[in-house]
Amino acid sequence: MEKKILFVASECSPFVKTGGLADVIGSLPQALKNQETDIRVILPLYEDIITNYFDNMEQVATIQVSVGWRKQEAVIYHYTHDDIPYYFIGNDYYFARKGIYGYYDDGERFVFFCRAVVDALSVLDFQPDVLHGHDWQAGLALSFAKILQPIDELKTVFTIHNIKYQGILPIDTFDELFSIPREHIPGIEWNGLLNCMKSGLFHADKITTVSPTYAEEIQTPYYGEGLYSLLKERQSDLSGILNGIDVEQFNPTKDPYIPKNYSDCREDKSENKQLLQEKLGLPIDGEIPLYVLISRLVDQKGLHLLQAILDEFLQHDVQVVVLGTGDYEFENYFYHAQQRNKQKFVAYLAFDEGIARHLYAASDFLLMPSLFEPCGLSQLIALQYKSVPIVRETGGLKDTITPYNELTSEGNGFSFTNYNAHDLLHVLTYSLRIYHDQEHWKKLHDNLNKCDFSWKTSAQSYQALYDSLLASVHDA
């Protein structure tokens, strides 16, 4: 029997992207679609999407959406991309703006979006069996679906991509924005505030997050960002399903962004490295070990550890490149680190997809010393490009990177456990020794070739989750 799944999300590649959520929503449906699964995605219609895709969209319907005492119009559009049907919720007042997030009324915008999604179910040519919301921006869609019951026996799944961001609103905005009885406040309120993440966790039939280790971590006070007790209560409904990557998109044999395509040829990586060195103004030497960090420059990414030991590590014969933007503290630090170490360190304080791909292709090592990391995509991409990840053992980094063992020749990277700068320095120094040991370096690279983090296994886990939910309906 065919399953009908509707993803609810705030971003999706290739339409609009700020981070890994968009990559997941863009690639996971491709892995899920088959003869037994009809999967579709519904998104807000942002200005960037209007600019690039609107001419090819078909208008489906116009509905009036209740936002407190007001009615706001939602125009629903349909567009098919790579055989996946997409729906877009259009409202110029809320979404025809530059970018996606960071506006004073983000809470109201996504209250509207979630209510519009649920109201739209009555006019779409598609009646889902499972409504699958992703992160806080979609949390209220599950609440409205349960409270308003637009479809009999509709099942719901909520996926936490990063529990740090929860969508917090003042409690007194309930009457202003929510057109539902006040008796439903307890399912949305947390610690005296309205919490969109909590609303999804409370109302979902099943909860997933993006790696098995992160599913365990968020049930503890340190990682749970204030919601750990609720997650602990619902642990029987919580599972961690590891993210994958689109191995066709991230494929060094045909990646259009990199100068020299390759499969497993160190000479080709060395050529990419020399071309990158030339581009960035570093000394040109294909044999010098190149370490890269490709990241948002924020606390979560473990940058305080790198700050503490960078100058000491640069005393070795190495090159380090940081690519990204973020907090002023880190941008300022890396800018001045480059001034001190112009022959060894480059801070590329922007985000450029072409440079990012070239860094993966040219580098020997990828740095991810994260404070926490729900799953992480960069280490999976690095493995595809035969760049060795160096990670802290947290979340999905722990689940995907096994430290290299000289005795057994097993492992696909390097890792350290404690959030400690000198533990990071120690593992960096160790990685340098392995790099210069020809036998172990070859064995480590052989292990990279065996890694498979495509969506295939993860998609099977999602299919099993949907099947178990729908079996409970059919057995009832």
Outline the structure in words.
By secondary structure, this protein is α/β, with parallel strands linked by helices. The protein folds into two domains: 3-244 and 456-475, Rossmann fold (3-Layer(aba) Sandwich); 266-449, Glycogen Phosphorylase B (Rossmann fold, 3-Layer(aba) Sandwich). It has 18 helices and 18 strands. A nine-stranded mixed sheet has the order 3-4-5-2-1-6-7-11-12, with helices on both faces. It has a six-stranded parallel sheet with strand order 15-14-13-16-17-18, sandwiched between helices. Helix 10 crosses helix 13 (353-362). The model has no long low-confidence stretch (mean pLDDT 95).
Mean pLDDT: 95
Second CATH tier, the architecture of the largest domain:
3-Layer(aba) Sandwich
Identify the CATH class of the largest domain: Alpha Beta
Strand content: 15-25%
| Tally of alpha and pi helices | 18
Placed side by side, the strands forming the largest sheet appear as 3-4-5-2-1-6-7-11-12
CATH superfamily of the largest domain: Glycogen Phosphorylase B
Q: Unreliable runs, pLDDT <50, ≥5 residues?
A: none
Give a short account of the largest sheet.
9 strands, mixed
End-to-end span in angstroms? 16 Å
Report the count of strand segments.
18
Assign an overall shape: elongated
Q: CATH fold name of the largest domain, please?
A: Rossmann fold
Q: What is the helix fraction of residues, given as a range?
A: 25-40%
> What does the radius of gyration come to?
23 Å
Number of domains: 2
Structural class: alpha/beta
